[in-house]
Amino acid sequence: xxxxxxxxxxxxxxxxxxxxxxxxxxxxxxxxxxxxxxxxxxxxxxxxxxxxxxxxxxxxxxxxxxxxxxxxxxxxxxxxxxxxxxxxxxxxxxxxxxxxxxxxxxxxxxxxxxxxxxxxxxxxxxxxxxxxxxxxxxxxxx
Length: 142
Hints:
Blueprint: E1 2-5, E2 21-28, E3 34-36, E4 39-41, E5 54-59, E6 64-66, E7 77-89, E8 93-99, E9 107-112, H1 113-116, E10 126-132, E11 137-140
Antiparallel strand pairs: 1-7, 2-3, 2-5, 3-4, 5-11, 6-10, 7-8, 7-10, 8-9
């Protein structure tokens, strides 16, 4: 496996693993908009409305990587802006860590290499993550 690291703070790196659940802290803003960090989210239909702090959870292999926010229907997919922090390649998989915002957990993705190897991904590159509604779960904080 070959890895390219972009994030200077090695304490934020996670072991590369398949079947990892990403957990992003979310909250409702004063105007009722759902936020992850400072990023406003348009939650897809079928995902619980965020009325209190909690986490959005999704599996590392449930998302798609995009070069821009176009393509998937936002009524059926959550779109997250992120920056590539780490890229590892194996035989037929790409493992990526993406930074949604400084101070938040890195998002880990496990993607089929054949679909993404032609994108010429580079460290620090701005990307979009598309997560289908059926792969998202909101877990309220206790």
